[in-house]
Amino acid sequence: xxxxxxxxxxxxxxxxxxxxxxxxxxxxxxxxxxxxxxxxxxxxxxxxxxxxxxxxxxxxxxxxxxxxxxxxxxxxxxxxxxxxxxxxxxxxxxxxxxxxxxxxxxxxxxxxxxxxxxxxxxxxxxxxxxxxxxxxxxxxxxxxxxxxxxxxxxxxxxxxxxxxxxxxxxxxxxxxxxxxxxxxxxxxxxxxxxxxxxxxxxxxxxxxxxxxxxxxxxxx
Length: 220
Prior knowledge:
Layout: H1 3-26, E1 32-38, E2 47-53, H2 71-84, E3 87-93, H3 95-101, H4 103-124, E4 132-136, E5 147-150, H5 158-181, H6 187-190, H7 196-205
Parallel strand pairs: 1-4, 4-5
Antiparallel strand pairs: 1-2, 2-3
Helix pairs in contact: 2-5, 3-4
């Protein structure tokens, strides 16, 4: 595939991912937020959510579901999204709260925190608050804003994909810091997921303060 063909493919993909937001703008909505989370499955660390409102003229190619992108690509897009977004918010819920209220409720809590921070940023910038939210496969009744759950939304909707990148890079950086604080579990590589090296670390030295005990009932 030539460079020109790759660019054309990226532009086609970009146009497809903007369709949902374009439809909502035509329906009268202005501040459309995409919300996604990362970290529901790991044995350790927090669940992190991000909410992002992109401008109508946002033109950064290459944004996609964070799981489809390399770490290098995510790191490159991360500051660009934050710079060009109208506003963004990040919510984080730690392992202790996850153990207390379960991962689903913790995920919803992190998403709510992200939306709240997003709206504070919009307000600080003198802008109206979010008037529509696109969640990736989730709905949160406690948030009294028109919303929609989009299955595989991080691969279909530009704002959700952007949020997935913000959440993923944020959490990966947190886990890299924890790797230095709690060595022996390979957190810098597995980001808290249940890899062979991670389980070996638990077997050798037990759990550490950021492990989710409710996820480790079979090994504790």
